[in-house]
Amino acid sequence: MLEDLTTAASPASWPAAYPQGYAVVDVETTGLARDDRIISAAVYRLDARGEVEDHWYTMVNPERDPGPVWIHGLTSEMLEGAPLFQDIAEEFAARLADRVLVAHNAVFDWSMIAREYARVEREAPVRQRLCTIALSKELGLPLPNHKLESLAAHFGVVQQRAHHALDDARVLAEAFRPSLHTAARGGVRLPLLECRPLKEWSDSPAAPRIGRQSGGYPSGGGYPSGSWRPSRKRPACPYPNPGRYEEGKPLKQGMRVAFSGDTSVDRELLEDRAIEAGLHVATSLSRLTSLLVTNDPDSSTSKVVKAKQFGTPVIDEAAFGQLLRDVEPASAK
Question: What is the side-by-side order of every strand in the sheet holding 192-194?
Fold first, then answer.
């Protein structure tokens, strides 16, 4: 079916710089926060041209309430006998090794995977990722939105069980193959991003555990509807913006700092430290931004692109960490 939808690139025309293999991944989780856990994972391994080699699926006991059961369908009873992440970490790693991780909104899947490996004091063997949302933008696909179901429909892939890790990974693998061939035919540079394992991270206080006899949520019910996605509200910065950062000088309280891409310190932990130092953490980049922190200044993320347009200073995570040690107080009014 897919062969009819796209003409395969010939061996001679296949870009030599393209990766030699891919791991199409989907994870279902207890929520979206940094302390949430993976409850199921699926991997479709593909060769250099997107042909399926094999697939794998497992449930994972998150050792806590499963979260939005009404979305992923996995109850406490179903997960209680599932392996812990530490029990499947080696097999999961073998499926990812030496391949580009492919996911729909890949930064989320990678972030959850990186945190799980950090918890068991290991590193996932992933060095690059490819987001199919970014790829569809590069290809200019005429999609009404960036949902997986829209990408699937564009390539005639039938989705059977939305939000089930195995079926979502299958759907994505089937949609990725024609996307990859379209990119190869057009000589499109794949939007690959670096994956940095977490060296430092922090969890929030533990959520109710699976099997808890009192004080927990109703068995099989998950969090009460609407409460599973915590809002993260930052305090307003009390200092005025002193302007742009200048190389060789210290940071100054009130400076607007934006972050882009992976960091070896958990992003929210890094943001918390910036706020504690008196900096303003910006979620987007504008002409008023004092500094962009990124370990991948050559990427095509919107923040990096805007930083180049506006001439915003750019430094890496290590340099930012050094500057955080001695932030200059705000000027007295």
Answer: 52-59, 38-47, 21-29, 100-103, 128-131, 192-194
